[in-house]
Amino acid sequence: MAVGVMNIEEGVSFPAKTTSHVRLSSLIAAVGGLMFGYDIGISGGVTSMDTFLKKFFPHVYEKKHRVHENNYCKFDDQLLQLFTSSLYLAGIFASLAASFLSRRYGRKPIIVSASIFFCLGALLNLFAQDLGMLIAGRLLLGLGIGFGNQTVPLFISEIAPPQTRGALNIMFQFLITIGILAASFVNFLTSTMKDGWRYSLGGAAIPALILLIGSYFIYETPASLIERGRDEEGKQVLRTIRGVEDIELEFNEIKRATEFSNNVKSPFKELFLNRENRPPLVCGTLLQFFQQFTGINVVMFYAPVLFQTMGSGNDASLISTVVTNGVNAIATIIAVFLVDKFGRKFFLVEGASQMTGTQVAIGALLFKNLHLVGPITSHVVPLIVLILICIYVSGFAWSWGPLGWLVPSEIYPIEVRNAGYFCAVAMNMVCTFIIGQFFLSALCRFRSMLFFFFGVMNVIMGLFVIFFLPETKGIPIEEMADKRWKKHWHWKNYFKQN
C-alpha cells in the first residue's frame, strides 16, 4: 500500500496509510452502531405486535381494534411510549459518565462496558414478566447506548487519518442502518410466533456479544494513551495504525494538544466559559438537535404503527418497514464512498432539501386521504406514501444520519473533546426521548400537520448549514480551529485576533 499524506491545507503534513488495523478497529467499534440501530428498529415492530400489547398494554390492544377509534389516536398511550423512550433517559446519564470515564481510563474500556450493559438489558427484556422488568431492561440498554454513542465516533475519529476519517466514521451510521434493517426482518419473522416479541427483544444480545468479543482486538487510541502519560505505548500504536515509521510530527502534534488538555482541570467549565470553544459547541449540539427533528425517528420507531394507522395489515406494515430500512442501509453506503470527496456541507444541504419535499408531500397525502375514522380506501395512497418515505429515508441516510455523528466527533479540540461530544450526544438523547415519548400523542392531536412541522424544521437546518457550518473534510482535528473556525465569517469573532 502506498504511503499517503495527511492533508493539512496550510502547514505540516503527516505520512499515513489507511491500514488494515485502522479499518478493522473502526469496524469493530462501529458495532456499537449495530446495537443502537437494532434497538431503534425493534421497538416499533414490537409495539405493533398484538401478543406484546395483550401482555403489557391490554388497553392499547383493545383501542387498536375498535372499529370507530380515531385513526390518529390508536396507539396514543404514555406508558407504551415510555417503553420506547425510557432507554434514552438512561442514555443521557450514561453518556455523561462516559465523557469522564473515557478521559480517565481510555476509549476501549468504555466500549467494552457498553456491550456488557446492552447484553444484560437484552436478556432482561427476553425474560420480562411485567412492565417493570421490561422498563428495567430498557434502562440497561440505555446505559449501553449512552456509553457506545459517546465513545465510538470519538474512537474512530481519533484513529483514522483525516483523508478517510469521514468514510471510516460513517461505518458507525452504516451499522446503525444494518441494525435497523436486521430488526425489521426479525420482527417480520417473529410477528406470527407465540411471544415472538421475546425473541425480537432478546436478539439485541447478539450485536452486544459481537462488540464484547471484538473489542478485545482493537487498539486504544494514541491520543488517549498520550493524554494519560503512556507516551511510548502511544507511539507504538501510532506506528501500527499509520503503517509508517515516521510518526514524530504527528506524535508531537498530539503531545502538544494533550499537554494543553491535561492543564485543563475542568473540561466542562473550559467548554462553556472559553469563547473559543463556542463555535464547535453550538454547531455540534445543534447538528444533533436538527438530526432528530428531521423526523427520522418518527419513521424508525413507529413505521409499522404508521402503516397500520393508514389501514395496512400487520404483515403489510412490517414488509413496508423492511423495504424502508433496506433503502436506509443502501443509501448510507453512498455517503461512505462520497463524503470525503464532496464534503459534509454538500450532503447536509442536499439531504435537508430532499427531506423537506417528502415530508410536505406525505403530510398533504394524509391530510387529504386519511380521515379520523376508517382506513384509507385507495390502495395506491399507502404505496405512494411508502415510496415517499423511501425517498425521505435515503436523503437522511446519506446526509444527516451519518454526518450528525461525524461532524461533532471531529470539531472539538482535545481538551474539551469528551465534554463537547457529550453535549452533542446528550442533545441527541434528549430529542430522541422527546420524539419517542410524545410523537404518538402529537400524531393524535396534530394529525397530518405534524409532517408539515418536520418539513419546516428541515428548511431551518439546511439554512443553518449554509451560513454557519464550515467544511471539515480533510482537516486534522487538532488543526480545526486554525483552518476553519478562525476563518469563518461569523465564528472568527470568538477568537482573539493576532
TrEMBL record:
PROSITE patterns linked: MFS, SUGAR_TRANSPORT_1, SUGAR_TRANSPORT_2
Membrane topology label: Multi-pass membrane protein
Gene Ontology cellular-component annotations: membrane
Keyword terms: Membrane, Sugar transport, Symport, Transmembrane, Transmembrane helix, Transport
Keyword Transmembrane among record annotations: yes
Lineage of producing organism: Eukaryota, Viridiplantae, Streptophyta, Embryophyta, Tracheophyta
Cellular localisation: Membrane
CDD domains: MFS_STP
GO molecular function: monosaccharide transmembrane transporter activity; symporter activity
Domain Major facilitator superfamily (MFS) profile, chain residue ranges per copy: 25-473
Membrane-spanning residues: 27-46, 79-98, 110-128, 134-156, 168-189, 201-219, 281-305, 317-339, 379-407, 419-443, 449-470
Provenance organism: Eutrema salsugineum
InterPro entries referenced in this protein's UniProt entry, alphabetically: MFS_dom (IPR020846), MFS_STP/MST-like_plant (IPR044778), MFS_sugar_transport-like (IPR005828), MFS_trans_sf (IPR036259), STP/PLT_plant (IPR045262), Sugar/inositol_transpt (IPR003663), Sugar_transporter_CS (IPR005829)
Protein name, as recorded: Major facilitator superfamily (MFS) profile domain-containing protein
Pfam families linked to this entry: Sugar_tr (PF00083)
PANTHER family, per database record: SOLUTE CARRIER FAMILY 2, FACILITATED GLUCOSE TRANSPORTER, SUGAR TRANSPORT PROTEIN 2
Similarity remark: Belongs to the major facilitator superfamily. Sugar transporter (TC 2.A.1.1) family.
